[in-house]
Amino acid sequence: MLYYLYEFFGDDTVFRVFKYISFRTTAATLSALFITFIIAPWFIQTLKNHQYGQTIRDDGPQTHLAKAGTPTMGGGAILFSLGLSTLLWARLDTMFTWTALAATTGFGLIGFFDDYLKVSKKNAKGLRGSYKIVAEFALGFLLMFALLTHTPLTADLAVPFLWEPLRNLPDWFYLPFGAVVIVGAANAVNLTDGADGLALGPVMTSALVYAILAYISGNMVFAGYLNMPYVAASGEMTVLCGSIFGSCLAFLWFNAHPASVFMGDVGALGLGAALGTAAVATKNELLFVIVGGIFVLEALSVILQVASFKLTGKRIFRMAPFHHSLELRGWAEQKMVVRLWIVSIILALVGLSTLKLKFNI
To answer: What is the pTM of this model?
Structure first.
């Protein structure tokens, strides 16, 4: 929104700084940071007043039972601050901005209904899984349709460590593939959000990586130099990623162990969908497997656990998602969280290395 002050007043005024994505991303990060710090205490108190406390699974680590009653759905503060910050600092004349905000809001609402059912019925199951996945894929397909029909997005796909992207993939493949990326990212982040601050670290590192990728993919010169698919106007996703980083960093102040509030499905699904949309917009969907490796590990652990139990009656892990298995093996929660953050940072650096480390096959 503030970008248009530059368009109105022109290059000869102080507002010329608003034309630079780098400045607007920095401003968006700080805006989201301060907005979250301002509204989070009120948000937490409101949740306490309405007794929206977390219901804890009794088959999980026993140390988590003490967290029962901790306010949940605090992720609403994250989504509000990152949405407002993005509206303030991003260009609003591109469908990338609106699609990313729609993904964040839409998946956040699905998470809100799930959380609300949990706290109102005092039941950890929440929204029925089949209803949830149908709603998520319906929204995912709508988002991909909007991107393919109202943006310069092409059906190209960058492959990590390969010099030449896969180009001109058929729409019948790419549309559902993109929907799977968005839905998969949303649920993978949600599965990771099971310990104080655990999901926020990898979300922030992933947001930083995709901020860099968005800046490159939206710049014809940089994209050409690195042989990445150029997507006009996708650079605005840099502003969104900065907003994600800022809001999550501030929320971590309240979510660090021992957590004063949990972000709940409303925050985890919304943030995951935002990252998935950024991956699609920058044409680096497959790189999310590396950059968001912690999320992928957590999701795979659940898939493998369920598949193994149904097929053989045996479990691969002591408990899924994977971070619970580590806790049951004796890892203290704080140590486990910090170590997985470290792994996330390493994976982010590996992901960034693929910008130059490419092979021409």
So the answer is: 0.95
